[in-house]
Write a structure and sequence with these properties.
The longest helix has 28 residues. A hairpin with a 3-residue loop joins strand 5 and strand 6. It contains 20 helices and 11 strands. By secondary structure, it is mainly alpha-helical. 49% of the residues lie in helices and 9% in strands. The strands form 5 sheets. Strands 3-4-7 form a 3-stranded antiparallel beta sheet.
RNA sequence: GGCCCCAUCGUCUAGAGGCCUAGGACACCGGCUUUUCACGCCGGCAACGCGGGUUCGAAUCCCGCUGGGGUCACCA
């Protein structure tokens, strides 16, 4: 096979945002395509109208774009093998089903969900594994019409081949499933839509997909797909089932984790790509981190650019063991990522962060934002900028004073902090050159003059202007805030002493 | 429970029979730095699940056990 024949796809169903695990699947497919000069196709698996979420598609596209995973064929750009929405390919699936029906590879059944449930329950109570009982005689089309007329659900089931099926997986090796463990499964639902298995196999063939990289939870589905390919005389793509990603405690990473945390009054964990975007992570860092979950370039290499990954990626180096998503390590990656990106890139990413969060700091000009970013050196995520310097963009009256900070820094020792603050107020009012270096010089000399530690002078101001003990370095903080607002906030803090 | 997959530090992993007294990263623990919070720097702790083989030699190959995971829908 020539390398230009590599065609891979990412096939999400439009039920929400892009999950972080889905992002890794998309990335691996994308990397393979880019490395081989092949095509990365985006296909939308919208065959279940009941589960569909209205604005999910634009969200997924937006998440993919934010990550930088561009597609060569798919929604919004089309391509030679479209349409790329399964809901627009119904006619194709229908004709394939007809073909299978004609050739005896599929048959109609008329069971209601309730009847099926009874059969399954019975099998369970008898400790038998349930497999759909294939009828000796397949119902005719006329039978199907009659059943439909009588109001019974009509579905089409695939007659699985009666031999064992071997899946050749390039990560796991050969996986053999015996004939008796295979079941006749539904390929056309009673609403006329194809099931996932059916649509997926047909589209992969027609779209000339060469490699299928997907999560390992699909491994058990693969014999079904291979059976279908055999009956339809399709070719079988190269399969590569990726190890799964779990929470650090081994549970599934699910959107429900967010609800649970919220219910407990905790901060919800990031699960979807969009969550990480909102939390202030860099997309390239997320990609780098997630690539290392199940894949490793070897040679103790970890920090990789997208280009590095395109170059180093290989199916052979994908592991078999499930991984746990270590948020601490991601945070560490993001910290170095933020410390090493170019300042223009950082500014762009920060603007994006402010925009998705609709933060008032958006109003600031580039120079001011750059100054804030510089002042927040050591930040782990862009959210840190908000906790550390967000007070700058709050109206004076919206500053909330942390009671512990007030007590410890200002009120303690008979209001020693307040006393220093009062002296500082006078000195600062007279200081005209409102710029970091100059302010720094002033404050240092005052500390020396008054024979106090720098911290004993810095902390009272910090609390006065920010309400907390956390802010950028004090002189930078003052420059960022400006002379006027600094004065107002000190006055405001001073009033706390008397309670007026 | 049936079927399937997997098994190296707490976590992500390197390791493709001798280079392993098992390497890196994160976390953790100590120390340094310090103007708060972070960052940074230095040092340390820490793993081949168990039992059998095969071999001169096994983390690496084989078998069993144990453990973990996935899947058993007219959802993808």
């Amino acid at each position: 096979m020539s390398s230009s024949a590599v065609r891979v796809r990412f096939a999400p169903s439009p039920t929400g945002y892009l999950h972080i695990g889905g992002a890794r699947t998309a990335l691996f497919n994308w990397l393979l395509a880019r490395q081989c000069g092949g095509q990365f196709i985006l296909r939308i698996e919208d065959t279940d109208q009941t589960r569909e979420v209205a604005d999910s598609l634009p969200k997924i596209l937006q998440d993919l774009r934010w990550l930088g995973l561009n597609w060569d064929e798919g929604p919004e750009i089309g391509g030679p093998y479209g349409p790329y929405f399964q809901s627009e390919r119904l006619e194709i699936y229908r004709s394939c089903a007809e073909r299978l029906l004609d050739q005896g590879w599929a048959y109609f059944t008329f069971d209601t969900p309730e009847e099926l449930a009874v059969m399954r329950d019975q099998a369970r109570s008898e400790k038998r594994t349930f497999r759909y009982p294939r009828p000796a005689q397949f119902p005719t089309r006329a039978d199907a019409e009659q059943a439909r007329a009588a109001g019974r659900p009509v579905v089409v089931r695939f007659r699985m081949p009666d031999h064992a099926i071997t899946v050749h997986d390039s990560i796991l090796g050969d996986v053999v499933v015996q004939a008796e463990d295979l079941e006749d499964f539904v390929i056309v639902k009673s609403d006329g839509f194809p099931t996932y298995h059916f649509a997926c196999v047909i589209d992969d063939e027609l779209m000339k997909i060469s490699h299928i990289l997907r999560a390992q939870e699909h491994l058990n589905n693969t014999p079904k797909h291979v059976g279908l390919q055999e009956a339809l005389q399709f070719s079988t793509p190269v399969y590569a089932h990726l190890p799964l990603i779990f929470n650090i405690n081994g549970t599934k990473m699910s959107k429900r984790d967010k609800e649970k945390a919220l219910a407990k009054g905790e901060k919800p964990p990031e699960i979807d790509v969009h969550d990480f975007r909102m939390a202030g992570y860099l997309p390239e860092v997320i990609l780098n981190f997630v690539a290392l979950l199940g894949w490793s370039p070897g040679q103790d290499r970890e920090k990789l650019s997208l280009d590095d990954m395109v170059q180093l990626f290989s199916l052979e180096r994908i592991g078999k063991t499930n991984a746990r998503f270590d948020r601490d390590k991601l945070l560490a990656f993001n910290t170095t990522g933020l410390a090493t990106v170019s300042s223009t890139r950082r500014l762009d990413a920060f603007r994006d962060f402010l925009a998705v969060n609709q933060h008032p700091m958006q109003q600031a000009g580039d120079a001011q934002l750059q100054a804030i970013l510089r002042a927040c050196e050591g930040l782990r995520t862009f959210s840190d900028v908000l906790t550390k310097a967000g007070f700058i963009y709050l109206p004076d009256e919206a500053i909330t004073y942390d009671s512990k900070a007030i007590e410890k820094v200002l009120r303690r020792n008979d209001g020693a902090g307040f006393a220093i603050l009062r002296k500082l107020d006078a000195a600062l009012q007279q200081h005209a050159d409102w710029e970091t270096a100059s302010l720094d010089q002033l404050l240092k000399s005052l500390a020396e003059q008054w024979s106090i530690k720098f911290g004993d002078l810095a902390q009272p101001i910090r609390v006065a202007v920010s309400g907390t003990t956390v802010s950028p370095s004090i002189s930078e903080t003052l420059e960022l805030l400006g002379h006027e607002r600094t004065g107002r906030r000190i006055q405001q803090a001073l009033r706390l002493q008397t309670g007026t």
